[in-house]
């Protein structure tokens, strides 16, 4: 198993717009080999930003990496730069592998 996470810092007052973009997008993940699940998580809010995290679970790191080189990935991210003023910097990627053998 491999967990891929991207943390996003969102401009105050733009949270509903960010959520609409993510919930309304076509992810192209449903038929990707090795994909298990996806969640968009809302985190803490400060005066400076609201924190969100995309959380996807994959069969393996290799399956995730293959997706990042695929046409499905390019399609899913085709409009990623169209709302730049919502984001306070680029997303911060974190990848995790289980330690407990799960």
Account of the 3D structure:
With 102 residues, this protein is an alpha+beta fold. It has one domain (2-96): Alpha-Beta Plaits (2-Layer Sandwich). Helices cover 24% and strands 33% of the residues. The chain has helices at residues 15-24, 61-68, 71-76, and strands at 2-10, 35-45, 50-58, 92-96. A four-stranded antiparallel β-sheet has the order 2-3-1-4. A hairpin with a 4-residue loop joins strand 2 (35-45) and strand 3 (50-58). The longest helix is centred in the first third of the chain and has 10 residues, at 15-24. The mean pLDDT is 89.
Mean pLDDT: 89
Determine the fraction of residues in helical runs and give it as a percent range. Answer: 10-25%
The CATH class name reads Alpha Beta
Order of helices and strands: EHEEHHE
Estimated share of beta-strand residues: 25-35%
CATH topology: Alpha-Beta Plaits
Structural class: alpha+beta
How far apart the termini lie comes to 7 Å
Compute the CA-based radius of gyration.
14 Å
Domain count: 1
Q: List low-confidence stretches.
A: none
**DSSP summary: helix tally:** 3
Largest sheet: 4 strands, antiparallel
Total E-strand runs: 4
The CATH architecture designation is 2-Layer Sandwich
What form results from the Cα inertia axes? globular
Question: In order across it, which strands form the biggest sheet?
Answer: 2-3-1-4
Gist?
Pfam families: ABM. With 102 residues, the protein is of the alpha+beta class.
What brief labels describe this structure?
single chain; 102 residues; alpha+beta; Alpha-Beta Plaits; four-stranded antiparallel β-sheet; 3 helices; 24% helix; 33% strand; globular
């Amino acid at each position: 198993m491999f967990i891929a996470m991207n943390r996003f810092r969102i401009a105050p007052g733009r949270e509903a717009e960010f959520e609409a973009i993510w919930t309304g997008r076509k992810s192209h993940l449903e038929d990707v080999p090795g994909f298990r699940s996806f969640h968009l998580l809302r985190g803490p809010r400060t005066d400076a930003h609201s924190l969100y995290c995309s959380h996807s679970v994959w069969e393996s790191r290799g399956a995730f990496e293959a997706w990042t080189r695929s046409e499905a990935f390019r399609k899913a991210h085709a409009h990623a730069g169209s709302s730049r003023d919502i984001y306070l910097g680029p997303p911060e990627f974190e990848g995790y592998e289980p330690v407990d053998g799960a």
